[in-house]
Amino acid sequence: MTTTETSSTNANWRPARWGWPDAAILLVGSLLLFTGLGVRSLWHSEGRWAEITREMLLTGDFLHPTIGGEPYFDKPVGTYWVVAATAAITGTLNEWAARCPSALAGLCTIACTLWLGRRLWSVSTGRIAAALLVTTYGFLFYSRTANADMENVAAIMLALVWYWSQRDQSSFVDFLVFYLIVFIGALMKGLPAVIIPVLAVVPDIVMRRRWRAVLTPQHLLAMCVGLAVYFAPFVYASLGKTGTYQSSGLE
């Protein structure tokens, strides 16, 4: 296997097979992200994710986040849902369950960095970039913390991977998957998960003069479906509010 790949301007680019260096980077990343993940007690904002999820599990209401029974719609509900899913799988809501989604998102980000590096530059570039990421303190810190940031980052990276893997395709499904990724990512923390990938791919669309392939009815339809997925939880939560719950995710 060669250590260089064809430039991203080549439409005939084919991904090189992943080798043991890639597996080693992912293994080291997994060890750094998951080892002792639940040992440290919850601190600072981590308690918010654990408590809101705990009250959702107690009440069975997953659309109206509360802390101590009081409305708290500071963030979209997506990150609480993934923590609740982790708790359901493991059978308990604890420090590990609260942080596991962030660690998984971190591992996904490492894999996306490996792929994008080799897609846009070369195999060695992807490995160097991923190795730098794995050994970055800030990245490890947030990947081992219960928060919404890493899920947001993972969605951005997944959207970019999808764009570059389907760059020369323009079917409804290709557009739809892209918008589902970014809008589900937006349900984790906010609209940066949509804005950043779009800003990242626009230069390529402009430089390659791909407007005709992008400005199509199937693209518009896919975007509308993605928007509907994003707004659905907020609208449904607003319609189903009880008299004591006045906080609005739409606002």
Topology at a glance:
Elements: H1 20-34, H2 46-59, E1 66-67, E2 70-71, H3 78-90, H4 95-120, H5 123-134, H6 137-143, H7 149-165, H8 172-186, H9 192-207, H10 211-214, H11 217-239
The radius of gyration is 20 Å
**How many beta-strand elements?**
2
Classification by helices and strands: mainly alpha
Provide the low-confidence segments as ranges: 1-10
List keywords for this structure.
251 residues, mainly alpha, two-stranded antiparallel sheet, 11 helices
What does this structure look like?
By secondary structure, the chain is an all-alpha fold. It has one domain. Helices cover 65% and strands 2% of the residues. The protein has eleven helices and two strands. It has helices at 20-34, 46-59, 78-90, 95-120, 123-134, 137-143, 149-165, 172-186, 192-207, 211-214, 217-239, and strands at residues 66-67, 70-71. Strands 1-2 form a two-stranded antiparallel sheet. α3 crosses α4 (95-120) and α4 packs parallel to α7. The model is unreliable at 1-10 (pLDDT under 50).
Provide a short characterization of the protein structure.
It contains 11 helices and 2 strands; from the N terminus they run ααββααααααααα. By secondary structure, it is mainly α.
